[in-house]
What does this fold into?
Amino acid sequence: MTSIDPALRSPVPVPGRHSGARAGTTLALSSMLCVQLGLAVSVGLIGEVGPLGVAWLRLAWAGVLLLVLVRPRRGDFTRSGLLACVALRVVTAGVTLLFMCAVARLPLGTASALEFLGPLGVAVCRGHGAKKRWPALAAVGVVLLTEPWHGGADPLGVAFALGAAACWAAYILLTQRVGDEVSGVRGLAVSMPVAGIVATLVAGPSVFGELDWRLLIIGAGLAVLLPVVPFSLELLALRKLTTAAFGTLMSLEPAMALVIGLVALHQIPAMTSVAGIVFVVVAGIGAERTGARANSS
It folds into this structure.
């Protein structure tokens, strides 16, 4: 009987898995860049309409734009898919409103790092085996970015950021479900108007009197940068990456926020924050190499 070389029994790498991870990572990174640029612009508007007003402008315009551009039909959705879309945008409204309240009280990098605890929690819960080392490494980076031992952060700002973190964790899980059940970006075209309605009920009445044509035009442009483009990219990314890998990749967002905060808002980071960037970048690279979904294409 002819013996079989044990080396031949080892699994053959599947190129599609690695290309899926790379494509998903590129989409996620592009989304993060749009988010941080949009947030930097949003911070500049807080003095005019307040944090809730900025969040409302973004969500309301995003809902209108997606309805007009995509024109979803009831026949495009199953009942469970439609319910997932609605739930997704309720938590999206929560992320947006709470995070804007957080950045009104905290530096952009600190608020983003605290918000990242949501994706990190998803990564820890959904990861297994050796893959859990990437969220652990990212957690070290988040601690260095936030420097909790100084105790100088605004407590209410921290509470807002943690609330946004909880909503973001739910957002990741629901986004992947919507992406799997609804083709294209039709899910966003249904769910985003729901987020706009929620934001209108919460923040609209306090903002209407402050609006003028200039703010409305700025709000429309801001809605394209955040959330229309990044949420569409995230929906596509989560079709190619596991929720654990996606959650760990989000560790790069606090680092991006730190850089954008320095360049656009002149928020100078401490050396510990720079060290935190190194940890989260390494964690993000590790997530990219191990995070393709088995059925990604």
